Amino acid sequence: MKLRAFGSRDDENGKGSPAPEARSEPEPDTGPVVDPRKPAGKGKPTPRRRDQERARGMRQGPVTAPLTRKEARDRRKAAEADMTKEERKEAKAEARATREERRQLMMEGDDRYVLSRDRGEVRRFARDWVDTHRRLINWFMPLALFVIVFQLIPTLMVYSQTLFLVLIAVVVIDGILLGRTVNRVVRERYPDTEDTGFGMGWYAVMRATQPRMLRTPRPRVRPGDTI
Length: 227
Prior knowledge:
By secondary structure, the chain is mainly alpha-helical. It has helices at residues 49-55, 69-81, 85-107, 121-131, 140-150, 157-189, 198-208, and strands at residues 9-10, 16-17.
């Protein structure tokens, strides 16, 4: 009587076949090998160079404008914190030059830098018309200053009050006539414009009451010029 070998079996022809091989267990994944000689990471990604330059004010890009003065001040302080003394001096000089350039362009009437009330070809024409005409309302501020000085003198106080009332009456009457005249000439030059009415008249009156040297934008024409 023959005994069968362990791990074998007989097929139909009586021949034995080898036993299946044992499967090897997969080795556990222990992760990347860390070199103890290398320093540990700082735990956050390194910012890109262009972001660092933009934070320092060295690069201009599409950034969100600050909503408040405090936010703008905080951004400026954060940008200056990473700058050296020379970089801060250079940044202040550039900011000063930029402000001066913007101011000059605003005084020249550049629509990119003037106030919203001064923008547009129609408003530019109204300013030129006011600057080329002399009216009684142009003397409002100098006369008002004299009236204030007269009120400080007791003997002239009564006359100063009368003069002040006359001045107010002249300004009101001449201001109404000026507003109507400016609206008429604006409609003649720009018949399709909607920038007329009380807003245009008030704009012309406010400019006419200011001395020429204080008007913003700066006058481009002289009194008597043709526009």
